[in-house]
Amino acid sequence: GLGWATAHGPDISPPDAKTPGIERATYREVALLCRLREAIARLNPHIPAGARDDALRRVLGPDVPGLVNANRQVHRWLVDGVPVEFQKDGETRGDRVRLIDFADAKANDFLAVNQFSVQGPKQTRRPDLVLFVNGLPVVVVELKNPGDEDADIWAAWNQLQAYQQDIPDLFHANVLQVISDGIQARMGSLTSDRERFMAWRTIDGVATDPLGPMRELETLVLGLFQRELLLEYLRHFVLFEDDGRLVKKVAGYHQFHAVRAVVESVLKASAPGGTRKGGVVWHTQGAGKSIEMTCLAGALMAHPQMGNPTLVVVTDRNDLDNQLFGVFAAASE
Description:
The protein has helices at residues 33-43, 49-60, 67-80, 153-166, 216-224, 227-236, 253-270, 289-302, 318-330; strands spanning 5-8, 82-88, 91-97, 110-114, 118-119, 124-125, 129-133, 136-143, 176-180, 185-188, 238-242, 246-250. It is of the alpha+beta class.
């Protein structure tokens, strides 16, 4: 209903593939190579084929030690493109190979695959649902049966931790992880502990729990996996903080919609004839203001209508000043 194509894992994987639906050569492959190669060619027609192939190789095997570091590297490539060099007119040129078209969501390939088995170094694991954008696995969803007394939502979280150990390659391009028992649903990042897996409680950014408390998974899917929204989230609402230990943080639903509202207000107020006055976002303590401001800064700086804006942050306490500086510096990318 959201415009994603769907597939059943065994149908697109050897040796069970129902030709011509084969999508990968072996169960070790975590990306859907044909879709990724086609997307790179489609989005980068001005870049020579050799440079595009080089970008493809780098994305499939980021030469970075550690899963979180590899995830950070691939995320930067998803957002900014993969830097490449090539010869043209006798000169060495530099450019970036785009992996995603953020301007036009329909220019990308969206596929949801259930029962997607992956063969790791020691054993094969089978996540319940993997969402692919242009052949790259950006979301992993683990589901538990609400009728099973022993299989609650945190059993799904434990399962995700096991997947990260056993099939780490699946998480190089991962943006989000979702767990649900059919009633409750939570989303988080690669490094989120249980407390940081949060509910997504809105679809339109206005009404909270619009479908009722028993339909959290449906609210999350409709509120976050609309194609345009997911790409916007991937681009502006994922950050890596490195203050000695690398942590991946993702915005909650209130931060996501607050930033979107502020950007809209700023663009309107700063346009010719605008009031030059934006709006106000009011927060309780501990609601994530620092991360929200970081995401807002990134969204404004990247917006084509903003040019190169100057952002001034005013605080009334030294500890808050230091905290904010630390958050912005740690998430400088």
